[in-house]
Amino acid sequence: MKKEVLIEVITALMILLFLYASFSKLVNIAAFVHSMQNQPFPKWFATLIVWTLPATEIAVSAMLVFEKTRLLGYYLFIGLMSAFSLYIGAILLHFFPYVPCTCGGVIQLLGWWQHLVFNLVFVFLAAFGLYRLKNGAISHKIEVARSLKLTTGEHKNS
Fold this sequence. Notes:
By secondary structure, the chain is mainly α. It contains 5 helices and no strands.
């Protein structure tokens, strides 16, 4: 599979995941607010999450669409998914006295271990895509620099 196609497939999966997650929260906002208020953290933080998380997921998805912001989108996606994974890890290690599931849609059918694996698969996919994206950009810059040297006559005849 060509590098560009692979990056596009990974990026599309990331966009779909965040758009699905954000819109499932917004479509059933009352349930999302209720589940956030039942989390084992302060109410002010729950209120902050209710309004910023779906907006952030949509913003990251938009960044992933455009080539100029895609790299930042990859970093933010990996950061958010890593944070979600750490939270699930804390749940599995019983750091909290109670934790209601706050996931929407099909993802709520997963158990905590399955959810952790699901998240980590996306973290690793995104990290691999980021690696390929960055290496492709570096290769492209090298090719452009070489072609500029050739067209300006700055190369050596060996």
